[in-house]
Q: What sequence folds into this?
């Protein structure tokens, strides 16, 4: 009956995001395991820092493996990172998991999520009949994994990523409150609701192309959005940067796409 | 067992919106009644055109009445139009209603909405734990009406409008698909989902400060958004404008706030 939070990083930028995320989960006293899937695009240094925070660092290399995910990838090369994300279903040492994007941050304990069934998630703000795949409750299963690969290969993904794929595969998903996956920009788009319900937010998601690790400039204390970025940077400065031998000079803040430079 | 679509207009701009909406509902063969609440801010001319399309044009004048809505308004002047909207619960000649904002447009028949319970609605894209109050299924009831007024007076509305009020009053609302209240801008914010699910959309909502009656310029055929504005203008040009004695010269496209210029 081991349960775990699971995330994914294919670059040092996302790896640093995962470090902050891991610390945020621990700081709110999670009783669950932390697990991360990493690819060779994450440097040794960041992987070593990750192993200080995560109970389980799993190296996944879809490109190099001879398994069905690799074969599927050859047919659907556009779904590169998606196939890596799907690997989370193979973590059958856990009975239930919560997947979290590496660009999320826990603001409160969210362990009650493990009482929810597969597939539970919160609405996507772009098309709320869909769930946002930055946070979802799932049950690892080799069978589901194979079905997902097969689905990816034969049907593809309507948005070219894991969100489209998972929404098509789990049309009867179970809806969770937005407080478990609040898109950081929601404080702007419907400010009165944020003022009314914002104190309940348990997980914030820095969705979109600008990530907190791209810079502290957005961390202005005046705005709610800025205070989330500020909270991210506080953890980064106090707990993540000191743990890395040569400080942040070594992680690439431009967050280049994953490369196969090391094995 | 009479059921009705209900909308609201306090200005000629919204009145013209309601005319297009009414035609769109009829063109898709609704078997339900059409009802509109109008205030004295709507000109005689537009009211007369409305009575050609709507089975029931109900004049509501919160400002002038001595009833409890008027008293509530004195305590919460910021909720002006909201108190007018709440009047839809007094339409007890109907057993069930679907409220539609005057800035919505039916693209398909939506009569199956009448099988849904009070209060059914679709997610708001800003904060999807809330429903968007541009479309909702309700059951007219004098008792609910009084409770709503009391709630408005004592608690107010967290967003200063009917959406905040109704969400607080109906926390256990029943979620309907986004296809029954698709915010027109959703075609931009998550285009792949729009491409996947857009053909199912039954009602489009021109939420925000720019309304179709402000001008045809947004009606560019290239974009999905433009084609919705174009569909609105087709109905306007073919069915609404000809029905008005002196064409659109008489309705104010700047859509000034409601005034008490006539009684
Ligand atoms: O180059 C990438 C892109 C994505 N991801 C992982 O996939 C998730 C989803 O991508 P992202 O958060 O950038 O997408 P968004 O939430 O902005 O749509 C990330 O949080 C990471 O866990 C990654 O490791 N490397
Ligand atoms: O000055 C106004 C503002 C609003 N309304 C009515 O209230 C609804 C909600 O307002 P609106 O659609 O402008 O708000 P949005 O959907 O853009 O938030 C309108 O569709 C109309 O039915 C009105 O009659 N007069
Ligand atoms: Mn993300
Ligand atoms: Mn509206």
A:
């Amino acid at each position: 009956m081991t349960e775990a939070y699971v995330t994914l990083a294919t670059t040092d930028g996302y790896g640093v995001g995962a470090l902050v995320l891991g610390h945020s989960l621990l700081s709110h006293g999670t009783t669950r395991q932390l697990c991360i899937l990493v690819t060779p695009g994450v440097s040794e240094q960041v992987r070593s820092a990750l192993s200080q925070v995560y109970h389980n660092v799993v190296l996944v290399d879809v490109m190099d493996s001879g398994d069905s995910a690799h074969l599927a990838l050859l047919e659907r090369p556009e779904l590169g990172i998606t196939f890596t994300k799907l690997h989370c279903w193979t973590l059958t040492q856990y009975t239930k998991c919560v997947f979290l994007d590496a660009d999320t941050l826990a603001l409160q304990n969210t362990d009650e999520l493990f009482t929810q069934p597969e597939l539970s998630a919160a609405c996507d703000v772009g098309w709320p009949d869909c769930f946002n795949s930055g946070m979802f409750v799932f049950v690892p299963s080799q069978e589901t994994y194979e079905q997902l690969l097969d689905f990816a290969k034969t049907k593809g993904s309507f948005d070219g990523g894991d969100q489209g794929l998972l929404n098509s595969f789990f049309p009867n998903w179970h809806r969770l409150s937005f407080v478990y996956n609040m898109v950081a920009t929601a404080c702007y788009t419907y400010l009165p609701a944020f003022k009314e319900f914002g104190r309940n937010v348990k997980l914030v998601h820095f969705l979109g192309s600008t990530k907190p690790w791209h810079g502290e400039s957005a961390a202005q204390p005046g705005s709610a959005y800025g205070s989330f970025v500020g909270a991210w940077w506080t953890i980064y400065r106090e707990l993540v940067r000191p743990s890395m031998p040569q400080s942040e000079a070594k992680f690439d803040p431009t967050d280049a796409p994953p490369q196969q430079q090391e094995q």
